[in-house]
Amino acid sequence: MNFSEVFKLSGLLCKFSPDGKYLASCVQYRLVVRDVNTLQIVQLYTCLDQIQHIEWSADSLFILCAMYKRGLVQVWSLEQPEWHCKIDEGSAGLVASCWSPDGRHILNTTEFHLRITVWSLCTKSVSYIKYPKACLQGTTFTRDGRYMALAERRDCKDYVSIFVCSDWQLLRHFDTDTQDLTGIEWAPNGCVLAVWDTCLEYKVLLYSLDGRLLSAYSAYEWSLGIKSIAWSPSSQFLAVGSYDGKVRILNHVTWKMITEFEHPAAINNPKIVVYKEAEKSPQLGLGCLSFPPHRAGAGPLPTSESKYEVASVPVSLQTLKPVTDRANPKIGIGMLAFSPDSYFLATRNDNVPNAVWVWDIQKLRLFAVLEQLSPVRAFQWDPQQPRLAICTGGSRVYLWSPAGCLSVQVPGEGDFAVLSLCWHLSGDSMALLSKDHFCLCFLETEAAVGTACRQLGGHT
Amino acid sequence: MGDWMTVTDPGLSSESKTISQHTSETKMSPSSLYSQQVLCSSIPLSKNVHSFFSAFCTEDNIEQTQENVETQNLKLGSDMDHLQSCYSKLKEQLETSRREMIGLQERDRQLQCKNRNLHQLLKNEKDEVQKLQNVIASRATQYNHDMKRKEREYNKLKERLHQLVMNKKDKKIAMDILNYVGRADGKRGSWRTGKTEARNEDEMYKILLNDYEYRQKQILMENAELKKVLQQMKKEMISLLSPQKKKPRERVDDSTGTVISDVEEDAGELSRESMWDLSCETVREQLTNSIRKQWRILKSHVEKLDNQVSKVHLEGFNDEDVISRQDHEQETEKLELEIQQYCYLLEEKERLKEEWSLFKEQKKNFERERRSFTEAAIRLGLERKAFEEERASWLKQQFLNMTTFDHQNSENKPHSTSNGSPVCMSKLTKSLPASPSTSDFCQTRSCISEHSSINVLNITPEDTKPNQVGGEYTNQKWSVASRPGSQEGCYSRCSLTYTNSHVEKDDLP
């Protein structure tokens, strides 16, 4: 595993281009585009204000930079650096901005979700969409970029509109039987739309592309409901994580639950491998003393290494007792992700925040549990193979694969607190983001990682 | 003396007779008679007493009678004591059992009380739960109502704000772009018309249909494979069960009897099933039922074997039984492996079938091309022949013409021609290696080339073999396509060489 040098970053804004050739990062009001292999700066653009959001167009030719405070969106071209485009929403304000799948339209959501303005980069036309829903995930595009589903709310009722992205024609418009729609998401095959309700009501509705209701699923009443949802990449399964600490898997043929995964704090089954992160005692030399040395001008700090140990079952994990009289309690399944081949599902139960559960979808049972020393901040699957990268806010990044797992220290002076990470589409490298910096981590081939796992003490 | 009361006793009847004879003569005093009667009546129970009485009461037996009476008294006394003790014991027992009963009754009462209490508690809890649920429901409705009210207010605010924003005619809300970018797919934008709407609908339904068809195909394939596996399993199970009939110790004769009949039945079924490869309801049911039947037979067989083994363990160690069970287990494992292998084999078979079909296609393509080549070569040969003949005739003409007026320039021409021809021949032969088309044509013999029509014109000596025209031309190398400009000159200069029909490379510079 090789690490690149550390570069400046602000706002955790670092994104790979969809074709995998470039890496865009933001430093305050500057947009820096680097080549992925050499990390040389290819382009440098300056925006008018601090950038809050960047997004590559699907053909990797343009980047949009959104500045919400000023209500501005600036679009830059990679091929023609002199080309510029500035969209000013003025008094309407701006809360969100995104590309359409053809890379030639920009959808701006104005303040208070008054409307969505569709600006075209090809023509002078501007379209308006009224009454968009103010929710976590109100717009979703199909993977092939043909259709967009938009959640709307009129007269205290929820609706979903489906638009054809090529000409922005309204294809379907139907109401949904939800109290307060929180999110919508297309299945990867683009034929089914999952719509789920607020956490006060457990309800997930499945609509076909032509607006027919295929099925409605509700596991229980009254208690807090759905917290997270994920489609499997093959569109065969829909995983629904809820506040009761369970993940329910629905199958695409009958849309009924085929199994539920519980997340108890005590694990008794000896077939499950439990990896516990343990601190390796730092090797103290003669000059090292126990008090923390001054950062300025001092040598490198004695960074404590950690490794994974296989814990013998029965294992009990650290739990967090949630405060019951506050909203948005830290219980339930907050993070869900399928591996790209749909064989594994990684989950996090928010009241056991240090652990990541990995489920085997072929056998529909728990496969492995990883317990870290600090709460897990983010995890993401390698886009090419079943390999999971985890970060906990410390200066280490963790990798799990069915062969084993390993923990790697990010080298460098001072603490590089990894707050987020994102994979390159080839699965060969990964960007690690901290508050003010980022670095690239280049992974060797699978064989090398396997030997590294064995060397570092990861077990199968 | 008076009349004696004769108390009859069969044993002493003779004595009593004598006594009565005795007494009939003598008269008793009434008092003695009376005492006699009293004595008789006071102890009516004991027979012995009676017998004694009837026997005695003479002066001789008074002592004996007294003794007897005493013993009788003692006996009676002890009996009384015994009876009294029994009585007291029974009384005690009765008391204790009564107390026990009371205790148990008490406990029963207490438990019933507790039970009632618990029931009551349960009922209370249920009521409370119901109440809480009602409370939640009512709160939810109230909350929803309030939320809706707030939302309406909010919507009004938004509308107002929206009006203000739109009315302001903000010149600032605009896009400032250097130049418009072309569309990603390079096409021009189209107007939104009814046609486009219909087109969009069509597209959408097409996508949905494709998705459904794809899924249905997947499911059908899965079904077919599973059915095949089930059929294989059935066959295996049948073959596994039928040989057991030979062993005399087996007690599964009944089941094997049914197995045999099943085999006959299933043979018929199999042929029928192979014809109906569709997912027919009845076929499916038949298959699953027969599998279940076989499985049940197999299970009972295994159970019986297990029983045998356990009996043997109790009775004593018997090698054969243990081995047979192990054999059975091994067989089942083998069966499982075989089933797995069958699945793999099926997959492999499918793959091989695909590859075979690909091969066939390629082979067809090869044949086609080869045919076209040969046809072209034949055509070429014929054309060539015709061309040669034409040329020969033309050259003859030319030669005749030339000889008629070339008498003056007779020195120059032969040189030029002789020089010209090798030069142009060198040009021709040199051009050949340079042209990639001839090498291509050589290669097309072994592999497929898509531009076969162009390459046909370029021939090498080996390739002219199928040409039925005479061997005169076999040594010619000429590329018709590559050097059009020089051809005419070559033709005129080549006249002499053609009539010779022989080219020697060694002559060329």
TrEMBL record, chain A:
One of its GO terms (biological process) is cell projection organization. It is found in: Cytoplasm, Cytoskeleton, Microtubule organizing center, Centrosome. SMART domains: WD40. SUPFAM superfamilies: Tricorn protease domain 2. InterPro entries: Centrosome-WD_assoc, WD40/YVTN_repeat-like_dom_sf, WD40_rpt. Pfam families: WD40. The keyword Phosphoprotein applies. Its main location: cytoplasm. Keywords: Cilium biogenesis/degradation, Cytoplasm, Cytoskeleton, Phosphoprotein, Repeat, WD repeat. GO terms for cellular component: centrosome; ciliary basal body; MWP complex. Interacts with SSX2IP. The SSX2IP:WRAP73 complex is proposed to act as regulator of spindle anchoring at the mitotic centrosome. Required for the centrosomal localization of SSX2IP and normal mitotic bipolar spindle morphology. Required for the targeting of centriole satellite proteins to centrosomes such as of PCM1, SSX2IP, CEP290 and PIBF1/CEP90. Required for ciliogenesis and involved in the removal of the CEP97:CCP110 complex from the mother centriole. This is WD repeat-containing protein WRAP73. It comes from Saimiri boliviensis boliviensis.
From TrEMBL, chain B:
InterPro entries: Adhesion_Centrosome_assoc, Afadin/alpha-actinin-bd. Pfam families: ADIP (PF11559). Residues 11-28 have a biased composition (Polar residues). Keywords: Cell adhesion, Cell junction, Coiled coil, Cytoplasm, Cytoskeleton. Residues 1-28, 241-266 are annotated as: Disordered. One of its GO terms (cellular component) is cell leading edge. It is found in: Cell junction, Adherens junction; Cytoplasm, Cytoskeleton, Microtubule organizing center, Centrosome, Centriolar satellite. Residues 80-167 form a coiled coil. It comes from the Eukaryota. GO terms for biological process: cell adhesion; centrosome cycle; intraciliary transport involved in cilium assembly; regulation of cell motility; regulation of Rac protein signal transduction. Belongs to the ADIP family. PANTHER family: AFADIN- AND ALPHA-ACTININ-BINDING PROTEIN. This is SSX family member 2 interacting protein. It comes from Saimiri boliviensis boliviensis (Bolivian squirrel monkey). The gene is SSX2IP.
